[in-house]
Write a structure and sequence with these properties.
The chain is α+β, with helices and mostly antiparallel strands and about 450 residues long. The chain contains five helices and 24 strands. Helix 4 runs antiparallel to helix 5.
Length: about 450
């Protein structure tokens, strides 16, 4: 008996130890269009610590509920729910036991779409002009629905433009590579990326042959609250219809000029001519700050604006969003956020820029936020973000976002000190592994 009891006792102890480390992650998938459980939707568990590996898959039950068994130590996970072909994501930080996800019904066309900002940024040197066009699209449909079709969002680029990279960012998501499909009309492109309820951003980098002067016609296809043109001070901007644009240039701030057209309409003539050369060496924050200062000085005293020195404002002139002067409050953060991505992935100094491989291969489009992280299968959407390097970059972005949210919860007192320390340690460890893997 003794000979057999000892191994059995060891096995029992080992089983109890393994059971103690296993945790259960539960959640509910809710249809935000019908406000009912999203029964039958596929739910996928992604282990962020292992480079976006799929750790499990299940279906939401009749009540929209799902659960996963987690093994190992506390690690961050990403929960993906698939509803009518469109994916939705929610982070599950270390130690969290319940995560809820909201999905929406899909329609080929929804009402309530609007373009908050259409931002174009230019600079030129050595016979080449580099441009970035950023769209911020707001889906305020009621009831809330996701719009998705083969030509979900369309735009024009100047003749001769070569797309270097296109990125899409879903509401509360991270930028991923997407594809721009050329249309039958020359210089017109379509993006097959879902427009979920909330704000979606598209950022297109392109290059143009340049001989010192060029005429640009944005050819807006949608109404926009603001069309914003950003260029170096050393370049000259001349609008075909000068009253359409308002200059936001402040000579005392930065090395860029900002021109703004408000409440633009589809097909409106907004062409302009650019002359000269120049690069923008300041950060996007400095660009926005300078324009904000100019607008602040232009506001009449009767509006209650404080014309105090910009240097005394938070961030050296970039005040809190609620204190931003109109109209910059509605688009300056898109200049900050959108072009920060550009600066982070390679910089914009023309003389040092190397030719980039186009990520906008004709006929290849990223159909959802998450295609980049999905394992390769016959049904997987082709995307440049499916490479190990892109997956690692996406992991790092998710970890940085989670660390930021953790610090916010700590400041707001929404997390106990001991829970904060555990989550922070786990995230730091995962981030360190990810950085080593990327290097």
């Amino acid at each position: 008996m003794t000979k057999f009891a000892y191994p059995a006792l060891l096995a029992a102890i080992l089983s109890l130890a393994l059971a103690s480390t296993a945790q259960t992650l539960t959640g509910i998938v809710t249809n935000g269009t019908t406000h009912k459980p999203a029964a039958g939707d596929e739910v996928i568990l992604i282990n962020i610590a292992n480079g976006m590996d799929v750790a499990g898959s299940t279906k939401a039950d009749s009540n929209g509920k799902f659960s996963f068994k987690l093994t190992g130590g506390p690690e961050p996970h990403l929960i993906r729910a698939v509803h009518q072909g469109v994916t939705y994501h929610q982070m599950a930080p270390p130690g969290v036991k319940s995560v809820d996800i909201q999905v929406y019904d899909v329609a080929p066309k929804v009402t309530g779409l609007s373009v908050t900002a259409d931002v174009l940024r230019f600079q030129a040197d050595s016979g080449t002009m580099q441009g970035v066009r950023l769209f911020v699209v707001d889906n305020a449909s009621s009831p809330a629905r996701t719009q998705m079709n083969d030509h979900n969002f369309e735009f024009y680029l100047p003749p001769g433009a070569k797309i270097e990279q296109l990125q899409a960012r879903a509401p509360n998501g991270q930028p991923i590579s997407a594809g721009a499909v050329p249309q039958s009309e020359k210089n017109r492109y379509a993006i097959a990326f879902p427009l979920r309820p909330g704000e979606t951003q598209f950022q297109c980098e392109f290059t143009l042959p340049y001989a010192g002067e060029i005429k640009i016609d944005p050819k807006p296809l949608y109404s926009a609250q603001h069309l914003v043109i950003v260029l170096p001070q050393t370049m000259q901007f001349t609008a075909a219809n000068p009253p359409s644009f308002e200059s936001m240039h402040d000579p005392s701030q930065g090395d860029s000029t900002v021109e703004v057209a408000r409440e633009t309409k589809p097909g409106q003539s907004l062409s302009f001519t650019l002359k000269g050369n120049g690069v923008i060496t300041e950060s996007p924050g400095e660009t926005a700050s300078g324009a904000a200062g100019q607008q602040d000085q232009q506001q009449p005293q009767s509006q209650g604006r404080d014309n105090r020195s910009l240097d005394n404002r938070p961030g050296g002139g970039l005040g809190a969003p609620i204190d931003a002067p109109d109209p910059l409050q509605q688009y300056r953060w898109y200049i900050l956020g959108g072009f920060a991505v550009l600066l982070a992935i390679g910089g914009w100094v023309v003389t040092n820029r190397q030719p980039a491989t186009s990520a906008a291969t004709p006929g290849v489009a990223s159909s959802d936020y998450g295609a980049a992280a999905r394992p390769t299968t016959p049904t997987t959407t082709a995307s440049a973000a499916s490479t190990p390097v892109a997956k690692s970059a996406m992991l790092l972005e998710a970890l940085k976002e989670e660390l930021f949210q953790l610090e916010v919860e700590k400041k707001q007192g929404k997390i106990a000190p001991e829970d904060y320390e555990k989550a922070k340690a786990a995230l730091d460890q995962t981030l360190e592994r990810a950085l080593k893997r990327q290097s």
